[in-house]
Amino acid sequence: MDQNQAPKRKKINSRQLFILAVAVFVGIGIILSAVTFTTFFKWGEAGGIPFDLDEPELNAEGTPIAPGEDDGSLSSSNLPNVPEIDVLPWDGTKRVTMLVMGVDQRDWEAGSEYSRTDTMMLLTIDPVAKTAGALSIPRDLWAAIPGFNPAKINTAHYFGDLYKYPGGGPALAVKTVENIIGVPIDYYVRLDFNAFVEFIDFIDGVKVDVTEPIELEIIGQAYDVKLEPGVVTLDGKLALAYARNRYNEGGDFDRARRQQQIILAIRNRLTNPAILAKLVTNAPELYNRFSQKVSTNMPLEDMLRLTVLALQVKQDDIDMAVIGLQESNFGRSPDDLSILIPYPDQIRVLRDRIFGTGGAFSPAAKGDEIVQMSNEKAKILILDGATDGGVTAQRTADHLISLGVENVSVQPAGQTYARTTLVIKDGVPYTLSYLANLMSVNTPNILHRLDINGQIDLEIWLGTDWQNNNTLP
Q: Which domains can be identified in the chain, with CATH numbers?
């Protein structure tokens, strides 16, 4: 071969391009993998986007030579065999955030049509600062689920599918997480555990540093496996058991940290050019295997552009955290379930560290509830059950409009209410908090009723108590 001749480059077809691009967000998320791709989403045919792959450099035995030590930056400069993506770079300055959800094992094993989320993790990337973050959300966190009574946050997905919420379980889960964390979520990814296990096995396992002895319960296996401290290689079933174990001293909090450890282990595994070559070679098989097991609302074009952006993020610039006992505390639900009671102010401190939010969800000054309420842009209907011919109802509407709540309407209730009641139909937590305090509405008079059509976020059933004791100017 002529020494001056450029190396021969292998072309792959559009379906393989699609398959390779998608794993950026499923295997470890846009902020953590960005150098390999698999087929976790059912998408249809991808458009023909130019994509070249260098053939890996081989040793005398014909085995691909692994790159040097990773300095934490996923870029073509230190990964010579990483595919070159011929797409336009991400051209926005807005932070991008994605919710990754894994379905509950018990629902999965039972073949249930509706499932809770066993894992919820927010991944984010800042295209300007070239930084990224991950925030794990405990499944037992007590949350206000839009349109439903408060419950564990992992039930939002279940309710969304069961009651046909617009967009289904993923949409309701996204809305719930947005409300409790206080960040806008652009995309979601939902996968089952089969996909996770098969993907880990396909990349020949992952290496993790076990810090303490741990016994793992393996799905479908009659005996447990005990891991001792040290660096070990986990296959798919072991990796799933390691990520899901919650029966050690740290419970769900350590469980979330192990999940993040697995994510970084996948990232490190995918820097191996031999694994990249294996993924490309088997792309059609991967598509058939995984296309039914993962769903997302992310367009392929955004996926490819964010891949290019993620290549520029160094590992040292990824901040990972877990909502723990500084942000929540153990408690019991009204039906005596073990739950985690959130501390909203502490969650916002953690949120600000990871996300550095801006816009409608930007950190507000303490006591700035009115600004937060106006930013929610709630659609409010006042049903007038007072006895003064609509005077108090209209004064209430005018007051809210003066505070920046633009969409407020008044209708006669057709009956008299003795006590004012607030009816939540979608997630507007700051609006609810302001009105409950303003109108002295206690918990028994705060109702949750799902509105499938989404025309109203909150109803005020205005009663004579507010008519006689209001503090409006």
A: 8-363 (3.40.630.190), 369-469 (3.30.70.2390)
pLDDT tens per residue across span 163-210: 999 899 999 999 999 988 888 899 998 877 777 788 888 888 989 999
SS3 content of the chain, % helix, strand, coil (to 5): 35, 20, 40
Yes or no: say if 456 and 382 are a contact pair by the CB < 8 Å rule. no
Closest-CA residue to 100 (of 298, 327, 307):
298
How many helices, marked H, and strands, marked E, lie in the chain? 15, 22
**CB–CB of 260/100 below 8 Å?**
no
Q: Which helix (H) or strand (E) holds 256?
A: helix 251-269
Measure the CA–CA gap between 226 and 231, rounded to whole angstroms.
14
What is the rounded distance in angstroms from the CA atom of residue 118 to the CA atom of residue 255? 11
Nearest to 448 by CA among 133, 129, 156: 156
Q: Is the pLDDT of residue 259 over 50?
A: yes
Q: What is the mean pLDDT of residues 218-222?
A: 70
Overall average pLDDT of the 64-89 stretch = 41
Does 273 have pLDDT greater than 50?
yes
Residue 59: C-alpha distances to residues 64, 80, 89, 305 (Å): 6, 15, 34, 33
Which amino acid is residue 440, in one-letter code? S
Helix (H, G, I), strand (E, B) or coil at 118: strand
